[in-house]
């Protein structure tokens, strides 16, 4: 896997993390099934469940790609990083990796200042920063910001949120201009791509654009705000993408969060299937209050 130099600096006007330079990696040609996932979020039980799924399908780390944010809301950051490293899968840096590696004081998630998620993030970020050793943070700092690979004759780009703003929220209903802007930004770095795989927003989707498919693989560490406990990941096989539900030991993950003394809002989210706040979501993706019972 080849990579160029990179560095991290600053934040943008919306509170997202900006990269002064972008580090890219070429993952080569991956013509068999490729397992795509994002956001382990310090949920070791979800990481272990995903590893079991991959093993049962004969998929090893060389054909697994993570879109970043290994560490976040849940209670086992050190264990989750160790497990992802042991898998040997490719990882692009999320805002959480960049912030922890740089010694920042917050996650840089792009939450609106004063929102509930913004206020809750301080506790889990401090816990993660304290639990991760220097080696883990150095490994995070060496991760590429973007990656490319070939599959069935097409070229894919992999990013976290946005290209210049790693914490940019891009949704299934985002304006066409948003996808075009990001496509242009990525191609300035890595050259032409047929499709883009992304993460960060937490909701899996495929958006057909004039350029190609924008594929958000979803996250494994938190349910997609749909009232169910299962999280999501994707398989790319034969050029087609399918989304899959991931069942894991939710009670174990909640227990880890309780032992860590983390706020109950996110452990409740694992159990209820609903995020602690909808203010990060565009109106069209919010769930009417009556639907929550």
TrEMBL record:
InterPro entries: Calcineurin-like_PHP_lpxH, Metallo-depent_PP-like. Coiled coil: none annotated. Residues 50-237 form the Calcineurin-like phosphoesterase domain. It holds the Pfam family Metallophos_2. CDD domains: MPP_superfamily. Belongs to the metallophosphoesterase superfamily. YfcE family. This is Diadenosine tetraphosphatase and related serine/threonine protein phosphatase. It comes from Sulfitobacter indolifex HEL-45. The lineage of its organism: Bacteria, Pseudomonadati, Pseudomonadota, Alphaproteobacteria, Rhodobacterales.
């Amino acid at each position: 896997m080849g990579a160029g130099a990179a560095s991290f600096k600053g934040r943008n006007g919306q509170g997202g993390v900006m990269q002064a330079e972008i580090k890219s990696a070429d993952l080569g040609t991956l013509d068999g099934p490729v397992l795509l996932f994002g956001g382990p979020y310090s949920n070791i039980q979800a990481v272990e469940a995903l590893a079991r799924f991959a093993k049962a399908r004969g998929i090893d780390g060389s054909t697994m790609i993570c879109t970043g944010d290994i560490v976040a809301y849940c209670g086992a950051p050190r264990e989750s990083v160790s497990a992802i490293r042991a898998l040997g899968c490719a990882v692009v840096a999320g805002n959480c990796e960049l912030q922890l590696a740089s010694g920042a004081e917050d996650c840089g998630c792009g939450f609106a200042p004063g929102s509930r998620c913004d206020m809750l993030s301080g506790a889990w970020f401090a816990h993660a920063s304290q639990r991760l050793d220097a080696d883990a943070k150095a490994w995070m700092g060496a991760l590429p910001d973007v990656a490319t690979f070939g599959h069935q004759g097409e070229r894919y780009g992999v990013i976290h949120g946005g290209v210049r703003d790693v914490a940019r929220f891009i949704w299934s209903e985002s304006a066409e201009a948003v996808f075009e802007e990001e496509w242009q930004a990525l191609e300035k770095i890595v050259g032409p791509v047929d499709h883009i795989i992304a993460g960060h927003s937490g909701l899996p989707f495929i958006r057909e654009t004039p350029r190609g498919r924008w594929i958000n693989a979803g996250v494994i560490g938190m349910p997609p705000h749909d009232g169910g406990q299962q999280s999501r990941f994707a398989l790319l096989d034969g050029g087609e993408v399918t989304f899959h539900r991931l069942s894991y030991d939710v009670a174990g993950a909640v227990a880890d969060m309780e032992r860590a003394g983390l706020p109950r809002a996110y452990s409740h989210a694992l159990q209820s299937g609903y995020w602690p706040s909808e203010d990060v979501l565009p109106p069209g993706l919010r769930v009417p209050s009556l639907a929550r019972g």
